[in-house]
Amino acid sequence: MSLASLQPIEEKPAVNQDPKTPTTTTSTPTRTVSQPQPKPQPRTQSSYLPKKRAEPTIPTIILNACDDIINNFIDPPLKYSVDPRHVLSDNFAPVDELPPTECEVVQGSLPSCLDGAYIRNGPNPQYLPRGPYHLFDGDGMLHSIKISRGRATLCSRYVRTYKYTIENEAGSPILPNVFSGFNGLTASAARGALSAARLLADLPYAIRLTPNGDIETIGRHDFDGKLAMSMTAHPKLDSDTGEAFAFRYGPVPPFLTYFRFDANGKKQPNVPIFSMTRPSFLHDFAITKKYAVFVDIQIGMNPMEMIFGGGSPVGADPAKVCRIGIIPRYATDESQMRWFEVPGFNIIHAINAWDEEDGNAVVMVAPNILSVEHTLDRTDLVHALVEKVRIDLRTGIVTRRPMSARNLDFGVINPAYMAKKSRYVYAAVGDPMPKISGVVKLDVSKGDERRDCIVATRIFGPGCYGGEPFFVARDPENPETEEDDGYVVSYVHDENTGESKFLVMDAKSPRLDIVAAVKLPRRVPYGFHGLFVRQADLDKLL
């Protein structure tokens, strides 16, 4: 695919732009591991299979036996994309917990600005699933590398969620896997994500790091009873105001609810969005200094399919027209919500958004998934293009420009530029997804020149794959520091040797030069999202 074939797209204004009556639309390679057994089997240190922690209870044994009958005699063979023998193999396979263990710096030295902890999450099921399993399912494990005065310590711990706890006590998988479906049964499965040193799952779980680098789950945190349900794994933090903005979505009205937290962490009233007329899979969103920006994509939710059909409650609707919704950042109701039709704009992750200087337009940067029908079924067929999208609030015209033809996702910026005009994006290279072969740096200010915006590239090497990059500023307290003055960090695994490393790359260099590499005491499985917490912020959590 060439960038030349992806010319800017100018959309017509939406038919109805009245804020009170918003427009709505109704319209990897094969791997082999052992076969799953009727009971979870204990594993040795070298095994990839999850560990059995307790003997199953009598009711669990009975339920498992019934499930075996369903799996063996009623259900068709598992699809390749949800067969745990495929999904949970190689470096996607789970690992045991690891107490704080010192690491070896094998290249360069760790910059002093990295004193703190880089924490990344991943699914890591504690038991081999008995039925279909999707990469997005699992229990939630955190892998933290704590850095102090040039030395590093790795720790891996499960988050003690509701799902983890009851299955750990039962000694067997009990709750179904939401994304892959579970033979017509249903329950709520907890999954983890990170933001601002707090872990978010089915309700936010607060965590802390001990002085020696261990990870402790403090417990569920419902903001004094004001957050009774889940929230996005991608809340937006405004470093200028100290506020946080978030949302939740679900299968029953209101399908979208927007809310925020003030600088003291106090949750403000919900803003239900009833103009979202169908349940949509909203994983992420963006904020500007004036607005919150949502994208209603073609991936929808159908929980009845899971309950009665045994399939996934999430699926793509190719007939649906995507929309961008813009609501004032401090809205108290949805009366000023505006929707703009943007055909084919399907995002899972947002990178950034900002207001133009005259206040008449909003700009959003995000990876657009071209093959949305494969997002939850065949991630190896997914191709995402980073686009810059401009929404003219006066005319309703939406203009889109691709930033590169490469398959890119998991884009990040300097966190200090959240909700402000930013120039640089660091994104993961899919080769194919979900494997990430490297990191690129994009200069999105070049997008108006109709050229590829990649200005720096770091490919990890044959058989080496990483994860989402994260940007750490060299001197965040200095207002004169340039936007790209800092480091890009990521875990990287070498499938040839079985070793994992923590890489530190120079964010300003044209090749994203490696300035430090830390050999980890054991492999870190591929995962999802992470963040860096400075030592000063860690000290506040003690």
TrEMBL record:
Ranges in coiled-coil conformation: none
One term under GO cellular component: chloroplast stroma
InterPro entries recorded: Carotenoid_Oase
Cofactor list: Fe(2+)
Cofactor note: Binds 1 Fe(2+) ion per subunit.
Top-rank taxon: Eukaryota
UniProt keyword Transmembrane, yes or no: no
Name under which the protein is recorded: Carotenoid cleavage dioxygenase 4
Source species: Citrus sinensis (Sweet orange)
Source taxonomy: Eukaryota, Viridiplantae, Streptophyta, Embryophyta, Tracheophyta
